[in-house]
Amino acid sequence: MSTPGTQTTFSAEDYFRTQHPPPTLEHDVEKVRAFVTRHREEGRPVVLVTSGGTTVPLERNVVRFLDNFSAGTRGATSAEYFLQAGYAVIFMHRQFSLQPFSRHFSHSTNPFLEFLEIGPSNPMSPIEPGSASEEGETVKVLPSMRKELLTVLRQYHAVQRAGTLLTLNFVTVDDYLFMLRAVAQELEPLGRRAMFYLAAAVSDFFLPTQKMSEHKIQSGKGSLQIEMDQVPKILKPLRDYWTPEGFIVSFKLETDPSLLIPKARQALERYGHKLVIGNDLYRRKFEVVFVEKDADSKDGFRETWVRLPEGKTEIEEEMIKKLVEMHAAWKEEKGRT
Amino acid sequence: MSTPGTQTTFSAEDYFRTQHPPPTLEHDVEKVRAFVTRHREEGRPVVLVTSGGTTVPLERNVVRFLDNFSAGTRGATSAEYFLQAGYAVIFMHRQFSLQPFSRHFSHSTNPFLEFLEIGPSNPMSPIEPGSASEEGETVKVLPSMRKELLTVLRQYHAVQRAGTLLTLNFVTVDDYLFMLRAVAQELEPLGRRAMFYLAAAVSDFFLPTQKMSEHKIQSGKGSLQIEMDQVPKILKPLRDYWTPEGFIVSFKLETDPSLLIPKARQALERYGHKLVIGNDLYRRKFEVVFVEKDADSKDGFRETWVRLPEGKTEIEEEMIKKLVEMHAAWKEEKGRT
Fold it and tell me: Any idea where the DNA/pantothenate metabolism flavoprotein C-terminal domain is (chains A, B) (predicted)?
């Protein structure tokens, strides 16, 4: 699928010059602009949370694609804790990945049809439009589910009323990269009040549209050979040009625990952003490691392990608490200089 | 990722000998056996509906995988119409793809938190456990949604009471192939009363475990090269050995409409099963083509277009009606010989 000798490493500039933005980008940017303007006026910090995996289509009329494992649990859960901490949240997620609030009742773990029962319409109450059926039956939430739903629904409605959550969708790695650049440029005027919490599982490789096959790749011609190019390292322009003052947090997911800290340090060296959160695929719900640069330390780095406290269920609660403190200190520091 | 010169075409036998079955297979087979036995005694026809895409993991500790585009709409919708037509349905689907009944309210098109409202607990009704909160509030279904939910919920409960739906899950193409073989072997005793409606989007290529990398593939070494082997053509042993009397329906999805009928005919020639349903990626909700062998026709084939009738919303209603007739005729034919 690729000609030997053609380019396999794109700079960010080359990438954005040669690939195509998603058709809905302008529309999304307008929503972001209005959202940022309002929260800027109200003095609220804003965090961009990215969540879920990106796809790499192998065909222009897409049937097959490369994907990255991610249900979006980390991002959706973290977004709720940022909202609780008073942030305005831009939640940029993979289509159909988990979302704040609805995540509690989604997919097959907690199918919502199981919450509902058919019961008699209440003859005492006035007739409500659309509620009555020929048989005088109506749909009700099971009593055993009401308490849990009520808790989530209260938070959900409060966030809707406050207008502190803006949701954006992506599918492909191209959608993601163009959208990240555009959102970063909109957040730039916030300076240190903007945080970037980049939890999406972004593909390291992509197939330039120029190399993509038009139709479904046919089998029957033996094995399938795919050669993909490296995705440009986007953290570099993000930190250097698009949002030099933003508080940028990236993630490293590894399956070999011995690579976690070396890879995190390498990323900080290369891109110069604030923090890498390292997680091991199998222990990521119980512990993560915050890796920062630290001029006072012997080797120039500081590692802090964050663990799920006894009696708690979501490590994101601890992670966000710590991040909010770090972000506040970073804003503070600016004030003093 | 592969050594040149190694095997790239697996026979079904080689495949099942060298690859690994999913750990839950035995457990699933027991459920299928009990389900088939009961419906066989009750004289009900049984259909296996497969639905959703399969993944091909690129790493043993999976972070990246190849996937096939499919939300599972065709399979989930068809399963409902088979249930309505009196079939017992084994619904074998990709984890998190759409399912019968819940499909009407799933994902972001119809998020269920939007159906619910917080209202006062009814002071007239007796106290129900778990329903009351400190503030005397409870969760209710929005009046405007009750009618639609009631219709679906009635069907869902009726199917649960009748026990006519058995749901199985797969993720990878390996899960799918091992599960398909096992289910086919359980359905074999039903002879012509079993139908196979193979709507899942199954990968044509896979990466043998022997060639898979143990950990997450590292970027930073230039481009990614993947070579995948062809998945064995499973329709052949399905038709020849596992269920010679089963009514087997396969699907062809193409993006180039000119390939649709030639590819469907080729599949019938090769595998000798009953029917190929051809669909074009962009028109599949409005028209499909049923391709069968026909000894009386000049070129040996018959094509019948099935189209969405005016005023209807789901082409699957027409498709299943037609299939139920064809299946009945096939059972009938056996009775006469």
Answer: 169-285
